[in-house]
Amino acid sequence: MTNRNAAAFWAFLLGFGLWASSRFVVGKLEPWDADWPYYSGVMLVGGTALGLTLPGQARAVFFGLWVGQALALLLPGHDRSWFLLGCVTTGIGGLLGLTGYLAGVVAHVGWRKINPAAEANTEPAGKHDTSESGR
Fold first, then answer.
1. Burial of 116 from C-beta contacts in 10 A (0-12 / 13-18 / 19+)
2. According to the model, what pLDDT value does residue 116 have?
3. Is the bond leading into 76 cis (omega within 30 degrees of zero)?
4. pLDDT over 70 for what percent of the chain?
5. DSSP assignment string, 52-80
6. Packed helices 83-114 and 3-25: angle between N→C axes, nearest 10 degrees
């Protein structure tokens, strides 16, 4: 799985999971009806985690967050007559996740700058030179 696909997948799970679990976690059908900071907190923290682990995939993260939330609006209990408006508002809500994502990317890049040894430890597995000349 490419980083772009992984970012879209995890962002989709975050957005969909936020809406699908809201009824059970906070007792509200829509997560933004819960007390602050449930919706914004989950989006910001989840986005930050994605930025720390999968930098350089902002479009995939935003698209995944948006589509995940929008498809969750089709779950039982939601009024489908509000689906189009929901698509717009979840797109705006996805910007919260994107804000967290960008903060995570900045932290990731900053960590690499102050800890160059971390960059050296990112060599892909199986790429070590084990020949006699490489020893």
1. exposed
2. 78
3. no
4. 87
5. HHSTT-HHHHHHHHHHHHHHHTTSTTS-G
6. 120
